[in-house]
C-alpha cells in the first residue's frame, strides 16, 4: 500500500521538471529548491516504485524506458489535473483544453475556416488538434472528440452527425492527356487508381453498370496513401484517378483542376461524417460540449 503522506502530484511535477530541464540542477533552480533535494526526491520516487527511472553520471542524464513511460503518464495526469481545476473554477463556463482528433481533409476544408469564429466565441478554450485518418481509441489517446468518416460501428461511443458527402471519381487534366478519358468501367479498370493505405468500410469504388448492376471496382494501383487530402494532392499532380469526397474537391472541379470521371456510372452513394465522443453529451465538460455544439451547427460537410 502506498504511504498516505506521499504527495504524488508534487513528485510528478518535480520529476517532469527534471526531464524537461535535462537534469537535477536545472530542475532545482526552476523549483527554487536545492539540487540535493531534487536528487533525493527522485531517489525516493524510484524506491517507492521499485524501478530505476534515470541513469545518472557526472556528465550525462538519461531516462530509462520505465522513466520515459512514467514521464509521459505524469505529464498527461498533470495536464488532466490542471483541466479539472480550471473546469471546477469556471463552473459551466467553457474553459480549458479540448483534444480533437480529425482527418486532414476535414481539418483543411471544414474546420480551419471555422476556427477563428470558434476561438472568438470561446476565448478561454484551448484546442489540441491531432491530424490523422487513423481511427484512434478515444480513451487511451485522451481524445475528447473525434471526427470520423463512414458508417458508425456498434460501440459504446456516442455521435453527432455532421452530414454526408457525395463521392466522385476524378482525375487531373494532365493525367487524362497522358492516358485518355475513360469512357467505360472497363477503361478505368485498366488504369492504376489511387487508394488508401489502410482498411476502409468499402474496399473499392462502388459503380453502377449500364445494366443497372452495382459493382465494386477494387482499388488497384502502384501508389497508396494514408489520408484523403494527400490522395487529393496526388490526383491534382496527375499521379492517377481518385475517388474523393465532394466537399474536398468542390473548388478543384469548379476551376478545372480536376475532372469528374464516369459520372453516369456513379451510384450516388454518400459518406457520412460524425463527431464521436465517450458518454452522453450532457455529461461532457462545458469546453468539449461547446466545440461539439459548434461543429454540429457549423461544421457540416454537406
Gyration radius, to the nearest Å?
26 Å
Mean residue pLDDT: 85
Shape: elongated
Helix content: 40-55%
Order of helices and strands: HHHEEHEHEEEHHEEEEHEHEEH
Number of H- or I-type helical stretches: 10
Number of strands: 13
Largest pleated sheet: 7 strands, mixed
- Label the structural class: alpha/beta
Poorly predicted runs of 5 or more residues:
none
Distance between the termini: 55 Å
Q: What oligomerization state is this entry in? A: single chain
Bin the strand percentage.
Answer: 15-25%
Topology:
Layout lengths: L7 H14 L2 H8 L3 H15 L4 E3 L4 E3 L1 H26 L5 E7 L1 H18 L3 E7 L13 E5 L7 E15 L1 H7 L5 H5 L5 E2 L8 E4 L5 E4 L6 E2 L2 H9 L5 E4 H9 L4 E2 L9 E9 L7 H13 L4
Parallel strand pairs: 3-4, 3-5, 7-10
Antiparallel strand pairs: 1-2, 5-13, 6-11, 6-12, 6-13, 8-9
Helix pairs in contact: 1-2, 1-3, 1-4, 2-3
Could you provide a short overview of the structure?
This protein has 302 residues and is α/β, with parallel strands linked by helices. It contains 10 helices and 13 strands.
Please provide a written account of the structure.
With 302 residues, the protein is α/β, with parallel strands linked by helices. Helices cover 41% and strands 22% of the residues. It contains ten helices and 13 strands. Strands 3, 4, 5, 6, 11, 12 and 13 form a seven-stranded mixed beta sheet that branches. Strands 1-2 form a two-stranded antiparallel sheet. The protein has a two-stranded parallel sheet with strand order 7-10.
Amino acid at each position: 500500500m502506498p504511504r498516505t503522506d506521499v504527495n504524488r502530484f508534487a513528485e510528478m511535477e518535480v520529476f517532469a521538471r527534471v526531464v524537461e530541464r535535462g537534469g537535477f540542477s536545472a530542475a532545482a533552480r526552476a523549483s527554487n529548491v536545492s539540487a540535493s533535494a531534487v536528487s533525493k526526491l527522485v531517489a525516493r520516487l524510484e524506491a517507492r516504485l521499485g524501478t530505476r527511472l534515470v541513469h545518472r553520471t557526472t556528465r550525462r542524464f538519461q531516462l530509462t524506458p520505465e522513466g520515459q513511460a512514467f514521464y509521459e503518464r505524469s505529464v498527461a495526469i498533470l495536464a488532466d489535473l490542471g483541466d479539472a481545476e480550471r473546469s471546477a473554477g469556471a463552473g459551466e463556463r467553457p474553459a480549458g483544453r479540448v483534444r480533437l482528433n480529425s482527418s486532414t481533409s476535414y481539418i483543411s476544408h471544414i474546420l480551419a475556416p471555422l476556427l477563428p469564429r470558434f476561438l472568438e466565441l470561446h476565448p478561454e478554450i484551448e484546442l489540441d488538434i491531432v491530424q490523422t485518418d487513423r481511427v484512434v481509441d478515444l480513451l487511451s489517446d485522451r481524445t475528447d472528440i473525434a471526427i470520423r468518416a463512414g458508417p458508425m460501428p456498434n460501440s459504446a461511443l456516442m455521435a453527432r452527425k455532421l452530414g454526408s458527402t457525395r463521392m466522385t471519381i476524378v482525375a487531373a487534366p494532365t493525367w487524362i492527356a497522358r492516358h485518355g478519358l475513360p469512357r467505360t468501367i472497363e477503361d478505368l479498370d485498366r488504369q492504376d487508381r489511387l487508394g488508401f493505405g489502410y482498411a476502409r468500410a468499402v474496399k473499392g469504388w462502388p459503380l453502377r453498370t449500364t445494366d443497372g448492376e452495382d459493382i465494386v471496382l477494387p482499388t488497384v494501383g502502384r501508389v497508396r496513401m494514408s489520408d484523403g487530402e494527400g490522395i487529393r494532392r496526388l490526383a491534382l499532380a496527375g499521379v492517377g484517378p481518385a475517388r474523393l469526397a465532394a466537399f474536398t474537391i468542390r473548388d478543384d472541379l469548379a476551376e478545372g483542376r480536376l475532372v469528374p470521371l464516369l459520372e453516369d456510372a456513379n451510384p450516388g452513394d454518400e459518406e457520412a461524417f460524425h463527431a464521436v465522443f465517450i458518454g452522453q453529451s450532457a455529461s461532457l465538460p462545458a469546453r468539449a460540449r461547446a466545440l461539439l455544439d459548434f461543429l454540429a451547427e457549423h461544421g457540416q460537410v454537406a
